[in-house]
Amino acid sequence: ELTHLNVCVRFSHCRDPVFGNQIIPDTAILTVIPFHHGFGMFTTLGYLTCGFRIVLMYRFEEELFLRSLQDYKIQSALLVPTLFSFFAKSTLVDKYDLSNLHEIASGGAPLAKEVGEAVAKRFKLPGIRQGYGLTETTSAIIITPEGDDKPGACGKVVPFFSAKIVDLDTGKTLGVNQRGELCVKGPMIMKGYVNNPEATSALIDKDGWLHSGDIAYYDKDGHFFIVDRLKSL
């Protein structure tokens, strides 16, 4: 169960010039992310609150996607990692004028470092903007900041949120470059599972920390890296 506050905070991140997009007139976004996924729904709705023009693709088609980037002068495109492998190898990219494209954002699943680097090179971008989140956190709560891409990382913690890495056996908070379970806390954490308080309390502890089930670490610059998964939520 998500709350009005959960959604409003997500929308504020879409408007953030570091973790979202600068509010520039005539900005156009192209997305192929389905609305049944939190990344697709709340990112798209958030960009609508920014006044951006949204171009939706209900089914991915390679040439239609590239032609849309060109014809609609798209500045930002939202993709899932499964589509990156195609673009890393496709020569179709070179047929289109993609000079307006400022960024490609990836979410919904981990993106392999090598694939992300290959796609960034193919599209002549400095990097790929990534994000990490769960349905239980409304949307992404770790996002690549503008101009601060690091290959293999999913980004830094967004405003109003905290994150920590804890030891799998002791629950002790770990430090830089130490692997453990990623726990997050902030105003986008769901209210709970509907009519299932036991499952809610198993996920969110008494101090409000959501235990993600993902194994991760962070580096000295505050970038987080997801390396494995304990369980599926």
Structure in words:
Its cofactor is Mg(2+). One of its GO terms (cellular component) is peroxisome. This is Luciferase. It holds the Pfam family AMP-binding. GO terms for molecular function: ATP binding; CoA-ligase activity; metal ion binding. By secondary structure, this protein is α/β, with parallel strands linked by helices. It has a single domain, classed as ANL, N-terminal domain (Rossmann fold, 3-Layer(aba) Sandwich), CATH 3.40.50.12780. It is 24% helix and 23% strand. It contains six helices and eleven strands. The strands form two sheets. It has a seven-stranded mixed beta sheet, sandwiched between helices. The protein has a four-stranded antiparallel beta sheet with strand order 8-9-10-11, with no helix packed on it. The chain is globular and about 55 Å long. The two termini are 14 Å apart. The mean pLDDT is 92.
